Amino acid sequence: MGTSSSSLHELRDNKYLQQFSGKEPISPNDPFWNQLLSFTFAPPHSCADCRLLEDSIRPMLDALLNSNPVTGNVAALIKVFLVHSSELKAAVQCENKVFIWQAYNSLFILRCILKYFIETLGEEGTLKQLEDAQQNRNDPSNASEPEKLLESVINALFEIIVDISLDSKTYAITVEAVHTLIVLLSVQMFSSRSAHVSTVYSIIMHGKCAIHSLLLIKTLLQHYSNQDMCPHCITAAEGGSIIAGLASGLWNVLTLNYAGSSPKDLSSFTVLANQSLLLLLILVNHCTNYKEMKNPYRAALFSFKNSNSDEIVSDDIAAFKFDYNILFKTLCNTLKDDQTALLAYLLLHQNPSFRHYIIFSSEIYMFVVPLLKLLYNAPDKNSHLIYMTLIILLILSEEEYFDKQIHNIKLKNVSWYSERMLSEIPLGSMIVLILIRTIQYNMTRMHDKYLHTNCLAALANMSAHIQNLHNYVCEKFINLLESMGKRFVRFSDQSKPGCQPPDDELLPSDLMQDLSVLDEVLRMLLEILNSCLTFQLRNNINLLYTILYKKDIFSMFRSNANFQDIMQNIDIVLMFFSPHLESMEQNVSVLEVTEIIKSASLQWSKEKMKKLPELKFKYVEEGQPEDFFIPYLWSVVFHSSDIYWNSKNILIFNPYKPS
């Protein structure tokens, strides 16, 4: 490092780094800092790059850990950064690229050091390293307070994100400000204590920086929604003249070293959007259960309104306005990973205005289909992502308008569903199909009660409004009922006194547990079928055809006392329609049978059926949601932030287990 370009293999012997980590204190006013910060080292932009960098500078970091309590050089670096950050806005206006470059370099070095300290020492140890040993020696009566220095850094980072306009010159330092905040907040990852007792979180939640909470959340949402690419992508498309005006090394820094590379993975070129989303999620998911520490970032996310709406914001609610349409489309286009699913969940569950916008969107299919794809590919996904996807569908299914509208939307050529060609299918039928498939997958492989409970709850909510269910989906539904029923009968027989199960069957305790689960699933499936027939019989001719064709399977439920009450209505339907089919000639076509059923349905009266309450389930968040969300969130950050984390001292989750 210094005035020339540096490479990884040169870092170990770099004289400026050696001096910085040495035993001599360096004043914040020393010309040394200009030399240290005048490097064109291309910053890492992948986890592998970060690890190579850390391995290269590890000797310097180890030396700094021991020397800094005496020299106070880290505090001096912080003061240098704070000077640069205070003048950054003016430098941007004057297009002083060299000053911006040095400001970026100071922050980049500081972030690397803070991350190493946090991973190695934890939060308390890191704070001790921020003490200004030079000031303490020179002016003992005015001893430094590391908490105040830390707060100044956090304030500066906030101001970079919310005050500095984003363009090709400031993209890199904006990303670095986001990265540094994520690193500071990662104290939670290396601590078993709750965030509300953390100094970092206390500063962020109710320090001076909290006045920016609305603007910060809005800015982070803006970065995520815009999906801005690194500047080289823009200039390459436009034939860019900016590169010609800069030294190539400096340009590599300002564009995060993406210049000249080809976009194999588009997400790697939207690094600011990706990291902004992670930072937003970290901010809103901590300090949620404590009255003494209100979370202003959470309140901001849950209260913002649509900038394209005339909705009036109440005077007693601090809220900003944002373009829902842009956010909605970005969610739809990026709903492929945990962090996007988490954001979608938070908005649907906690922001009533945005939930209303999604529910009544004419393009709701754009949001739902990616969710169905996630569930369809469940074996390749982690269980947390499957849970979040199902919860989102459950929340959607709570809305009657959604339950009705999805059957009026047609999907064409569903190519991602590979088990059968579906040239046209209603969105509602597609949702039912994927939920049925997920239940089947769970019952045969995962055996996760939480998973099938959410699937069944969503199906139950939709059941009274299901119309024109696709014939293939009807077959799948009844086949699931049949296979689960046969399994229930087999397990019931094995559980009888004196019956010894085969060696490859379940132990008695497991058998009874499986029986209980099967009983619950079957009862819910029969109630869902009952609800469809009760409220939408005439609009489900394909379903009627299927249950009449497979009517023999219902005998196993009819003979079981657990299901007899639910079978009453189904039996009434079977007894009404069966005579119409028995009088038919043999070898009639499916179409002819369907027409007979349709004709007979016109004579049907729902008064024949026993009145049952409409099935309604509502998602309720756990009493201590942080117990689930915080470990999950940090595992997502660990795996997807493109920051290399030393997993050795992580306490909040198991880093060796896939997220």
From TrEMBL:
One of its GO terms (biological process) is Golgi organization. This is Dymeclin. GO terms for cellular component: Golgi apparatus. The gene is DYM. Keywords: Lipoprotein, Myristate. The keyword Lipoprotein applies. It holds the Pfam family Dymeclin. It comes from the Eukaryota. Belongs to the dymeclin family.
